[in-house]
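Much of the work behind modern protein science is quiet bookkeeping, done one molecule at a time. The protein below has been through that process, and both of its lines are reproduced in full.


***
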Amino acid sequence: MKCKIMHESKGRMRVRFCINRMTLKQADTAEYALSAVVGVTRVQVFDRTCDIVIAYTCPREKIIGELSAFSFDDEKNTALVPEHTGRELNKQYEEKLAALVIRRAVNKFILPMPIRRIISVIKAAKYIFRGLKCLLKGRLEVSVLDATAIGVSLLRGDFKTAGSVMFLLNVGDILDEWTHRKSIDDLARTMSLGVEQVWIKTSDGQEVLMPVNEVRRGDMVVVRTGSMIPLDGKVVSGNAMVNQASMTGESVPVHKSEGAYVYAGTVVEDGECTIAVENTAGGGRYDRIVKMIEESEKMKSAAEDKASHLADKLVPWSLGGTLLTWLLTRNATKALSILMVDFSCALKLAMPISVLSAMRDCSRAGITVKGGRFMEAIAEADTIVFDKTGTLTHSSPRVAQVITFGDRDEDEMLRLAACLEEHYPHSIANAVVAEAEKRGLIHEEFHSKVEYVVAHGISSMVEGERVLIGSHHFIIEDEQCTPPDERVFRHLPKEYSHLYLAIGGEVAAVICIEDPLREEASDVVKKLHEYGISRVVMMTGDNERTAKAVAEKVGVDEYHGEVLPEDKAAFIRAEHEAGRRVVMIGDGVNDSPALSEADAGIAISTGAAIAREIADITISADDLYALVELKRLSNALMSRIGWNYRTIIGFNGGLIALGVLGVLPPATSALLHNASTLAIGLRSMTELKN
């Protein structure tokens, strides 16, 4: 692609494509394709000017090369663009605002006064009707205040003030609607499937792993505990409890058996089912999510609710103050000064915009937040609970050693373990499968139906013998499998986590898992303390020895080993009873109950589908500093909201006082009030700083 460098500084370049115009689709293609380049940290595309701003850390020559080779028609580039990007929505509301400003300018500077007055009366009818409708319902809300201010201004012949008030109200309505629609759009797009491969059952009963985009209508897809249902379809066999809150809003899992319909994007919490695919496109999942969110108040923060309710509660005081001022002074101008200044515009506009801006900043940092209330919970939290595997440790552990017993072959034991583990998404399971692949071991399906026991392990039948794989607690204590020699167990490498494989009631092998600690883990814990977290707790299903070693290295305040999923959830409930706000971070199926119980549940992006679905926030798996950034942004958001409250109440209160004293005329009060509303709204849109 031919382009011209317009401006350049260290690590930043502004280029212009040499084309006459850029469509929205082309702008999205450029943004997502260039963002995927390793070393590019941020891309902004301006479709109106055909400009692109690129921030990068890689060599400049690489950026030049990528731009030269870029093509809008390249299928690799267009494939990176999601179905919905939000660019069209933003342009729609930008054009609405521009049209409103242009109409205002034409009305004010071109049309003659008589026509302007007629237009003002016609426009005012809408607001006066709203106010009367509200009064007839016996409510005193902001619409009554707006109608009174506009109506009184018109009766006094102050058409200029009435026009200004209506213009600002229109701007506020558009920005409020834009904020709401964009929040819904952002949230719906973050609920992407993230499913790349699925298990297909063939005609001879074998299960084959296949890319999801190759699945066709009528194919049989097998979905098990913790996995996301990739496509719409009908259950043809099996039973499963399906969490479909993201699709239907139901708060409890729904039982699905033969003949039941299931939706793409819902998650199997327990059980297993085979689904006949009916819609390979996901059946309008995006539209259904949008509808569900619109009917829900989930994403509203308490701060937004408080602002909305406070604005309505102040209406009677404003009306009462207006009447009292007129009775005491018999001066309509002073009384009208109170009506010209209300708190609702700024309160109802600044708060949702602040939340949206914070969610946007989170998105840029690789953090997906499902609603403003969860950032509020992060800001107020004093306790954070970490799972160990995949969070404090890397999400990609590896097999360090396979110890076999009874002259069993090491590769055969690893092959069998991989055959069982590949059905269930977890970092340790992935490590076993990856090691088998690395050794070139082909593990075809030669076992019967597998059963997943949450937080314990997997059970199946192979050649008539029961095969188990899982933790020491599951294999030795629960299943009473016979160890070859207790002395051998005592000499297992202590630096590794251990996965036990048992065949026919006897321990056949121990797979040693190297679970390297994240380099940044201890620094992240330290910074969380600095940002206001008073208690950092680690809870893991690993043995006490491993848990203690990790806890000492990371520097957590408290740790618990050999815990079950219900233990994590019970711990969080106990913390709530003690009056603490708790955040939970995890990545596995076994973390789901705790993620749901916490004030804010945080999942790792590479974790199990059920964990991502239940969690309120998802952070990038690249490093844990995203968690620190989330806490910083949440604290900054609440500081901004507090500043907005103080400024709005203080400034508008001052305008009312000056109006009552006769220092400011109503028109000036209205102008300053509206100007401050816009200024606070614009400030709320800016990037959150430290």
